[in-house]
Amino acid sequence: MKRSIPGDSEEVASSTEKRQRSPSFHQPSDVLHLNVGGTLTAVLRRTLTSIEGSMLASRFSGRWDDSLEKDRDGNFFIDQPIDLFQPMIDYLRAKACETTLAPPVSSPAFDDARKLKDFVRMVEYFGMTAGIYPTELELCRGEISAAKISGHPHLGVISSEYATFTLETRGHKRPIRSFSVILGDVEKIEIGLVRTNHFVKKLRKGDHKGVGTERYSFCLDCSQGGLLYEGSFTKLDGLSTEEGTLVRCENKGEKWLVNGQVVASSIALEDSFHLPPDLQQYSLVPAFSGKGSWQVCEVELDPMTSDHKTTISQAHL
After folding, report:
1. Burial class (CB in 10 A: 0-12, 13-18, 19+), 276
2. Cα-Cα-Cα-Cα dihedral sign, residues 185, 186, 190, 194
3. What is the pairing mode between strands 246-250 and 176-195?
4. Cα distance between residue 214 and residue 230, in whole Å
5. H/E run at residue 179
6. pLDDT per residue over 147-166, tens digit each?
7. Cα–Cα distance for residue pair 111/107, rounded to 1 Å
8. Which of 94, 156, 166, 272 is the most buried (most CB within 10 A)?
9. Most confident of 2-6, 7-11, 70-74, 283-287
10. Is 10 exposed, middle or buried (0-12, 13-18, 19+ CB in 10 A)?
C-alpha cells in the first residue's frame, strides 16, 4: 500500500510553477498579447525577438515576463503609439517569410518627416536599427562568381579574386559614421571610404583600381602599411596586420585604430598627412578592396539631423 506523503501535491505544484516561470519554458511560438499605447494586438514571441542583441529581444525573451509592465487585463504594455510600433512589427513579420521568389522587403516608409524622426527614435530606443535598417555589402568591382557575401547580422566577404565592395544602409539616408573590420585570411586588403555613387552599379570586368587608388577614395592600406588617397601613399611606421586583426574607422576616417591602438588621426598626423576634406561630407560610404576573407562589425550610424534628407526610400548605389 502506497503511503501518502504530506506536502507532495504542494511540492509538485510549486515545481511546475517554477518550471513555467523559467526562461526555458517560454517558446518562440508563444503568442504574446500586447497593449500598445491603448491598442490591443497579438504577436509571436519569435517576431519580437527576431533581432538578436536588441533590447526588444531581451525584454521579451521570456526571462523578464513577470516583471514587465502589464495592463489590468495582463497584457504586456508598450508605451508607444501604435502607428509607429505596428509598422516595425509588420516589417519583422514580412522578413520572417521573405523568399527569393518575391521582391525584397523594404524598411517602413513615412511621408511625414516628424513621424519618420519619431519612428527612428523608437527603433533606436529598442536597439532595432541594425535589423530595421540593415547595412549591406555589395560587390562593385570584380567577378560575381568569385565573391561570396554574408548579410546581417554576420556581414562578411570571401573573395577568391581581388574585388571591391561597398557598405551601405538600406531604406534610409543616414550615413555610416564608424565601422570595424576583422581580418581573416587575406592576401590583400584596403579599408576605406569612397564618395557615394562613385562606383556605378554596373560591374566592370577585368583589372580595376581599388579603394584609395580610385578617384574620390581614401583608405588604410593594410598590405602596404599606410594611408592611400587617390593613389598618393603615406607610410605609417610600425603598422602591421595579420589574421584576426581588428581595424576600426571612426567618424568617417578621422581616426583609424588597429587592435585598439590609434595608428592615424587628423590630430596625430597633422604635420605629415592631411585628411582629404571630402571625408567629413555626408556623401561618403565605407568601401573595401581585397582578396581573401573579412568580417564587418560594430557599424554606427550618424544621428538624424534636420540637414539630412527625410524621405524614406530604397537606397541604391
Report:
1. middle
2. negative
3. antiparallel
4. 6
5. strand 176-195
6. 999 887 789 999 999 999 99
7. 13
8. 166
9. 70-74
10. exposed
Burial bucket for residue 88 (CB in 10 Å: 0-12, 13-18, 19+): buried
Cα 49 vs. chain centroid, distance in angstroms?
A: 16
Q: Which residue has the cell 516561470?
A: 21
For residue 203, the number of C-alpha atoms closer than 13 Å in the C-beta half-sphere is 15
- The DSSP string of 222-291 is TTTTEEEETTEEEE-TT----TT-EEEEETTTTEEEETTEEEEETTTTTTT----GGGGSSSEEEEEEEE
Cα–Cα distance list, 68 to 25, 74, 84, 86, 260 (Å): 17, 10, 20, 20, 38
Q: How far is CA 108 from the centre of its chain?
A: 16
- β-bridge pairing 39-44 and 135-141: unpaired
What distance in Å separates the CA atoms of residue 76 and residue 144, rounded to the nearest whole number? Answer: 47
Q: Whole-model pTM?
A: 0.70
Short-list 124, 128, 129, 151, CA closest to 138: 151
Find the largest Cα–Cα distance for the chain: 94
193-243 per-position pLDDT tens digit:
998 877 655 556 656 788 999 888 889 999 999 999 888 898 988 888 999
- The interaxial angle of helices 82-96 and 113-125, nearest 10 deg, is 70
| DSSP-derived secondary structure letter, 277 | G
Cell numbers for 73: 487585463
Q: Which three cell numbers stand for residue 11?
A: 511540492
